[in-house]
Amino acid sequence: MTAPAPSDTLMEDIVGLCKRRGFIFQSSEIYGGYNGFYDYGPLGVELRNNIKQAWWRDFVQCRDDIEGLDSTIIMHPKIWKASGHVDSFSDPMVDCKESKLRYRADQLFFAPVSVDGETIGYVSVVECIDQQEVAEKAATEMKRKMAKQGELDTIELKEYTEAKPEQYELIPSPATGKSGSLTEPREFKLMFETKVGPLANDAATAYLRPETAQGIFANYKNIVDTGRVKIPFGIAQIGKAFRNEITPRNFIFRSREFEQMEIEYFISPSADWNTLHREWIDTCIDWLVSIGLPREGISEDIHPEDKLAFYSQATTDLMFQFPHGEQELWGIACRSDYDLKQHQEHSGKSMTIFDETAKEKYVPHVIEPSLGVDRTLLAVLSAAYTEDEVPNDKGKVEKRILLKFSPKIAPVKAAIFPLLKNKPELVEVAKRLHKKLQRRWNVFYDASGAIGRRYRRQDEIGTPFGITIDFDTIEKDGTVTLRDRDTCEQRRVTEDELIEFLEEQING
Ligand code: GAP
Residues 26-63: pLDDT tens digits? Predict the structure, then answer.
């Protein structure tokens, strides 16, 4: 599988397919939709579950050093005070007073437009793949309109967060193109608040968790006390997280309700965290490839030291080539002992562990691989989306859309077709095989329409295998045809061979 080229049309194609075939819907659509929230339809929920199950199996069940956890979404508000979220989990926001639109200041870019060194105005652009091009076009247009002679100087875009106070008035709003309506950036708190209990006063304020990680830190002591773990060990959790994102966008890439798959991997303070961090990065890349993402679509973004939080030793983000550009998919951070020490201080409970091997007691450090389920699903969809041309039943070459999902995570693993729906003997064998396979995998029975059309429908939802019951099956040797989604090649196999093949492809 190759990495998708960034393109807005690819995103539109994916969004359209997701709605048409029942993967993902805009939340509350019958009421006009609700920005930043998405619902997963019949195929979406299967795909989502398969991604989560693959992660859980590979990182929890197949490892002896990682334990699972499922903590609550609403936790004691002191947890968020201790973690620092109450005071500092925010994004810089800027408002356009005229259009009433709101931007994240770190996703809004501006540049002075200068001709032969003389500044003639400013351009602004919201973060996008071709932001430099958009800004240059706007600058050329400004020069033309102002009838300025001379050379346009290089456009150097900067984040709005870097603008000087005297520039706020001069930078145009991307919504109106006019200057004077953008506010200065101010911090916008991302945590959703709620009230717990019958009294709606300040003391009842609680938060929907913005990450699953703190549930792990808050339960670290419980898990250590079960006696099941010894350093180094990890605690893994999959669960919903909520952030009141200023500008949710790019479909499910940045939403207000999403799901995370997080691990806190506890290590000795004297461990070689550099090597362990590298091992985690490689393990995470291998896992993404194992679920079908192209290796060449994944890159590493190493955070520069001066941009790290004071407690963090290193952070590397695994980036993926999404349709809207290369963006963060998986964050892998070395967070020292900061979180545990904060909880130790705020709760008054000791967070030390006795290291049997080193014979010493300490608060461990952590490596934190943190992955979004929805972002993984978008990456998988972008990598799988393919258009090609294949001959139809009559031999005429037609365009087809297919999703090249890995059989491991494909929502439907195989489709079973009787060649003709009005031949009871074919239907009976097909239905029996469907029932048999259904006990192990999510498979689909389809008898309606020409066989080519039925293949096409399955290709579009990414079903890797088509199994057809024809007259040879019932009159000759009991074999069925097995069709490969990507190559369209067909071969005859016995039922035993079929099951062995599916087992190997799906679970192997
Ligand atoms: N505990 C660390 C943490 O939460 P993060 O970088 O804020 O770190 C980790 O989030 C991952 O969660 C991201 O790499 C991304 O995959 C996913 N994620 C974060 N915010 C998201 C959002 N608004 N919508 C969808 N996924 C999101």
Answer: 999 999 999 999 999 999 999 999 999 999 999 999 99
The closest alpha carbon to 90, from 100, 77, 80, belongs to 80
376 CA from centroid of ligand 1 (Å)? 11
**pTM tops 0.85, yes or no:** yes
pLDDT band at 4 (very low <50, low <70, confident <90, very high): low
DSSP-assigned letters across all residues of 232-243: SEEEEEEEEEE-
* Region class of 246: left (phi > 0), else alpha (psi between -120 and 50), else beta: alpha
Measure 476 CA to ligand 1 centroid, in angstroms. Answer: 56
Which two tokens mark 48? 């989502």
The helix or strand, by DSSP H or E, that contains position 487, with its residue range, turns out to be none
* pLDDT grade for 8, boundaries at 50, 70 and 90: low
H helix or E strand, kind and range, residue 314: strand 314-322
- Among 69, 211, 371, the mutation site with the greatest number of ligand 1 atoms within 8 A of its Cβ is 211
Query: Residue 53 in 3-state DSSP?
Result: helix
Q: What is the CA radius of gyration of the chain?
A: 27
Give residue 260 CA to ligand 1 midpoint distance, Å.
Answer: 7
Q: Tell me the residue type at 121.
A: G
Distance CA 444, CA 276 (A): 43
Looking at residue 65, the DSSP 8-state letter turns out to be S
Helix ranges (DSSP H) in 320-450: 338-347, 373-384, 424-438
